[in-house]
Amino acid sequence: MIIAFTTALPAKGFKRLAGHDFRLLDRDDCSEADVLVSTFDYRVGRELMDSMPKLKLIANFGAGYNNIDPEACRERGIRVTNTPQPVIEPTAELAFALLIDVARRVSEFDRALRNGTGQPMAVMNNLSHSLYGKTLGILGMGRIGQALARRAKASGMRILYHNRHELTSERMKELKSEGVEARYVDFQTLLQDSDFLSLNLPYTPEVHHIIGKPEFGMMKRTAFLVNTARGAHVDEQALVEALQNGIIAGAALDVYEHEPQISQELLTLPNVVLSPHTGTGTWEGRIAMCECVTDNILAFEANDNNKMNIVL
Length: 312
Fold this sequence. Notes:
The chain is α/β, with parallel strands linked by helices. It folds into two domains: about 110 residues, NAD(P)-binding Rossmann-like Domain (Rossmann fold); about 190 residues, NAD(P)-binding Rossmann-like Domain (Rossmann fold, 3-Layer(aba) Sandwich). The protein is about 35% helix and about 15% strand. It contains eleven helices and twelve strands. The strands form two sheets. Strands 8-7-6-9-10-11-12 form a seven-stranded parallel sheet, sandwiched between helices. Strands 2-1-3-4-5 form a five-stranded parallel sheet, with helices on one face. Helix 9 links the parallel strand 10 and strand 11. Helix 3 crosses helix 5. The longest helix has 19 residues.
């Protein structure tokens, strides 16, 4: 079997595929490839698929797969898998780190100390906001949202969430056994009552710009936005205007609407924390994702759909 890669990934995670023919797009001839391992920063569209006529599986390296043309896959009978489990804890970890950073102004203070523009150390200077007793609103209470809720609850935060569907009573009991109590609310209530709003939902065209000017207008002026999901969830220009005009207090972002470009205003605003789309970017996480890709490919070879994370 010939396996093509859009990006060079850690070989350690693919040891169980020893004996297969590995090739790298843009370097090797991949026209005969049976499998393509794709990453979020590489668009997999019709033209690429046409150049790989034997392609039967796209084993996506990541949970989100909006980099892949679904209609083109369906037309060609190409299956698509993803790696949902290994991304949960690293992404939730970064979301919580960003939340703490923007609330306690860690990056802002770091910049000020380094360039000499900060306020003197004094009792009423350099104040920030505590997490304890505040309300975290989670938009998208899937596995990553739930992992974030566990971290937030440990810091004394109240948890609200909104999903397309309320979590089952069984899942709520499981969360409660993990020390997490979360209350389902409608979208408007989530916006109005959250001190911190975290976006943790997958991207589909239906949720494009789910957060824009009207939504910022419903949020508290003291609220912070955290986005580790997809940049297109947020109208970035509306976000810039909300930050500039004090409509919300700040934002912490790992994803951007027009990646890899980032709005110049976001780069200069002091109340913004930025990270380079690295929610899953730990060494441990990358190896685990490679192992999950391997699982999907081996299950595909064995024609075992029950062991594949099939999304298309």
